[in-house]
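Standup notes, structure subgroup. Blocker cleared on the 5,6-dihydrouridine-5'-monophosphate input:
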Amino acid sequence: MSHETLQSKPHRRFNPLSNKWVLVSPQRASRPWKGKVEKEKLHQEPSYDQECYLCPGNIRASGLVNDEYKDVYIFDNDFAAIEENGADINLKDGLFQTEAVSGNCKVICYSPDHSKTMPELDINSIQKIIDAWCKLYFELEQKYPWVQIFENKGEINGCSNPHPHGQVWAGSFLPDEAAREDREQKAYFESLKSPLLLDYVKQEIKLMERIVCINDDWVALVPYWASWPFEMLLLPRTPISHMTDLTDEQKLSLARILKELTTRYDNLFNCSFPYSMGWHWRPANGQPSEHWIMHAHFYPPLLRSATIQKFMVGYELMAETQRDISPEQAAKMLRDTSDIHYKLRGE
Ligand code: H2U
Ligand code: ZN
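Run returned:
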C-alpha cells in the first residue's frame, strides 16, 4: 500500500504486542482541524493546598499524617485494591472460576509541590521519581511476580487529585495486559531470535515518521498500531528488559525524554494534558526474559482540544478499536509543538 493510501483510505493495522487489530479511518480526519482549540482556563494550582491529602504534613482519609517530605514520598494506599493477606478463595466450578490474590498498593507523590506535574519538574526531580520506581520494584519483586507502576493524570481520566502522583499495585499474579505482552514477545523471539520491540524501534528510527522525541538511549513514538489518538510508546534503543538495569546515564536520558514528551503533550492543547501511563517490563517470575524490552505506554483520552475527548464506545466496544487521525498525523502534530512548556513561554 502506498504512503498516500495509508493517510487517506480506511484500513486495519495489527498490534503485535496485544495481538489485536485497530481500524484506521484517516479519511475522516484528513481535513486539518479548524475548530476552536481552547486555551486552558490558565488555572494555576497553589504550591501547597491545605485540603490536599497528598501535600506534606496533611492528614489523609485514614487519619494518618504525611511526612513533611522534601522530594518523593511513598505511602501505603489507604484503600488498597489488592490486600497483603488475600483470602483463600480458589474455586473452579464449571464456568465459575475464582483465583485468590494478594498484593501491595502504594501511592508515590512525585514532589512536595502541589502544583508541579511531570513536565514542570526539573530533571533532577524526575530522576528522583525514576529512583523511587526502582526502589519500589526492588522491594516488591521479592514477593510479587508483577509490579505495576502507573499514573492516572487529570480529572477527565478519573484521577482524584491534581497533586502530582502515581501508584504501584504489585500482585501475586500476572495481570492480563502483562500476560498478553509476555506471550506475544515470547512467540516472536522464539521464531525470529530477536526481541520484537528492539526490531520495531530500529525500523521506526529508520523511518522517523512516527517518532516524537528521541535521544541517545530512548525513543518516544506514536506506535504504528496506536488505538488512542495521541498514544505513545516510550522505549529504549538497546535491549533492556528492566528499569533496574539502567545505568545512571540512561536514567538521566530517561528523565530528559519524560520531560520533553510530557511538555509536548501539555503544549498540544495548552492544558495539563491528561493520560494514563504505566511501565511494562520483564515479570519477576524467574522465567527467561530475553524476549522482553521494557517500555512505557501513555494513553491520553483527548482527541481535538483540552475538552474534546475520545470515547472508546459503540463500534470500539462491540467490534474493534477505531481511530480517525492517523498515527503519523498525530506524531507530526506533537513534533510541531514546542519543547518549552507553554506556562514558561507566557503566551
Ligand atoms: P488516583 O487519583 O490516581 O486515583 O490516586 C489516588 C490514590 O490515593 C487512590 O488509589 C489513594 C486512593 O486510594 N488515597 C489514599 O491512599 N489515601 C487518601 O487519603 C486518599 C486517597
Ligand atoms: Zn497537594
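Discussed briefly. Residues 49, 52, 54-55, 114, 163 surround zinc ion (ligand 2) (CB under 6 Å).
Next: hand off to the docking folks.
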